[in-house]
Amino acid sequence: MTARTKAAAGGAFRRLVITEARLAWREPIGLVWGVGMPVLLVIIFGSIPAFQEPLPGLGGGTLFDAYVPILMVIALSMLAFMGIPYPLANYRELGVLRRMSTTPVPPSRLLAAQLVVNLVMAAVAFVLIVVIGMAAFGLKLPAQPLGFLLAITLGAGCLFSLGLCVAAFARTGRAAVAMGQGLFFPLAFFAGLWFPQAQMPDLLRGISQATPTGAAAQALTESFAGQFPSAAPLLLLTAYSVAFAAVAIHWFRWE
User: Fold this and answer.
1) Which residues in 30-56 are b (16+ Cβ under 10 Å) and which e?
2) C-alpha R_g of the chain
3) Following DSSP, what letter does each residue of 13-47 receive, concatenated?
């Protein structure tokens, strides 16, 4: 591939990313649920006085502190299960993917553009959660920043790969929404949205930490507490990422 060809391909991909970003703005499923809802929950939880009281069961931390990493996982989950599968399944239903396969721009670029757009929205959600939490509710930055970056990267890879699996199997946009919601609610529970892992019974905590969202929440919680994330959740997230990506690649159909 010549330098001119590479530059043309890069320009085409940038235009595709911009187009997908504009469509995401016009149909803001990811923005509303993946960015808006977690940020709104941060404000609600931070405004509850009981959430600001130190609890012995949380190692002296507050419920608000415990929920911040959970809400980051929720943001990733919303984008992975609703922001990614719906447009891709809708494109399949409308024949867009089939038509793209006959053009010089391969449809795989569309998948990459969707991932870029949703990663940007995830970054926006994280920044808003941290900035609002620090400015209004005394949140402290992760005490282990390298561990935090590793945990959030592996968590995003794991959940977005699972979202691509939904997009691979869903034949229509409605089916993608139904499948995404079917995954989101149980995985949100295991992430700790109803109550953090530290307050779960031992058996339930063990099950939670074996799930993609539970492992991500565990790794992020440890990084906020100043510990480098344990090997178990990191290895689990890596294994899930590889497995889900392999399934998505094998089963994804353009028609």
Assistant:
1) bbebbbbbbbebbeebbeeeebeeebe
2) 19
3) HHHHHHHHHHHHHHS-HIIIIIIIHHHHHHHHHHT
**37-76 residue pLDDT tens:** 999 999 999 999 999 998 887 877 899 999 999 999 999 9
Q: pLDDT tens digits for 125-138?
A: 999 999 999 999 99
The SS3 of residue 3 is: helix
Q: Would the pTM count as exceeding 0.90?
A: yes
What amino acid occupies position 134? M
Domain edges within the chain: 3-251
Q: Indicate whether 3 pLDDT > 60.
A: no
Taking CA atoms, 239 is separated from 44, 132, 149, 251, in Å, by 35, 33, 18, 18
